[in-house]
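sorry for the late reply, my laptop died twice this morning and i had to redo everyting from scratch. anyway the thing you sent over, i finally got around to it. pasting the sequence first so we're on the same page, its 329 residues, then the predicted structure underneath. double check i copied it right bc i was rushing
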Amino acid sequence: MTIFLYLGGFLCALLIILWGCSVFTNAIEWLGKRTSTTESAVGSIFAALGTTLPETAIPVSAFFLTTGAYKTDVGMGAILGAPFTESTLILPILAILLLVLSRYGRRPPTFKLNVLAVRTDLRCFLLAFSLGIACAFLPYRWLHLMGALFLIGLYVYYVIKKLSGQSGGELDPIPLIFARKTKLPSYGIILLQGVVGVTTLILGSQLFVYVADNLASTLEVSPLLLTLFIAPLATELPELANSVLWVRHRKDTLAISIITGAMVFQGTVPVAIGLVGTDWNLDAQALTPMVLALLAMAVCYFHLKWYGHWRPWLLSGSAIFYFGFIFSL
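ok and here's the structure:
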C-alpha cells in the first residue's frame, strides 16, 4: 500500500511539474511575440528552456531546498538522465519515425537540417559535457566552481550567438493561458503567468524529490537510477510529442533543434548546479550515462561535419547505448 502511495505521489509530482512547464513555456512564447523575437530563436532557446525546466528544477530542489538521505542522488539522476535520454532514446525514436514515414512514401528518408545551427548546438554540448566529465576526476573545489562559471558563460555565449544569427517568421502561440480571450496580453499578465509557472515547477519538484527519496529508501534501490530513468521519460514527453509532429510535417530543423538546444542547456546549467551543489564525486554508475551520451552525440557531430547530413540508421543505432545500459544494471 505504501508503494502505491509513493507511485501516486510520483504521478502527482510529475503532473504538477509538467503543468508548470506548460504555463511557463506559454508565457515565454508570448514574451517572445511581444518583443518580436523570431520563431526560430524562440524554438531553439526559449522553447528548449521551457522543456528543460522540470529536470532543472528537480536538482535545484534536491541540493538547496530539501533534506533527505538520498537528495544528492535524486538530483544527480535528474541532471544526468535528461541528456542521456535525449541522445540515446528520443533521437532514435525520431529516426525510426522518419524511416517508417519514408517507407510508406510520406516523406524523404533523410533529415533536412540547418546543418550549421545543429553543429553549433552539438559543439557546445560536447564541450560542456566533456568538462563535466573531466571535473569528476579533479577533486578540487575551486576547479569545480570555475567549471560552473565557465558553463554558465558558455550558455550565455550560446544564447547570444543564436539570437544574433537567427532569422524566421513571427511567433503564433496559442492564447495566453491566463488571458485566453485577450488577443495581445499585457507584459504584466505575461510576467504573472511566468512567475506562477516557475513557482509550480518548484513545488512539484520538491514533491518529486521527497517521494523519490522515500521510495528509494522503502524499495532499497538506488535513487540515482530511479531518477535517471523515470524522471526523463516523463518530462521529455512534451518535447518528444512536438518533435514527432514536426518530423511528420517535414520541419526537421525545428524537430531536431528543440532537442539539441535543450541538450546544450542540460549540459551547461544543470551540470553547473551539480558542480556547485555537490562534491561532484561521480562513480561508475553516474559516469556511464554521461560517457554514452557524449559518445552518441560525438558520432552525430562528426557524421554531420563530414557528410553534411544525418542518416536515420545512424541515429536509431544510438538506442543500443540506452538499452545496453539498462540491461547491464
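The mean pLDDT is 81.
thats about all i looked at so far, will dig more tmrw
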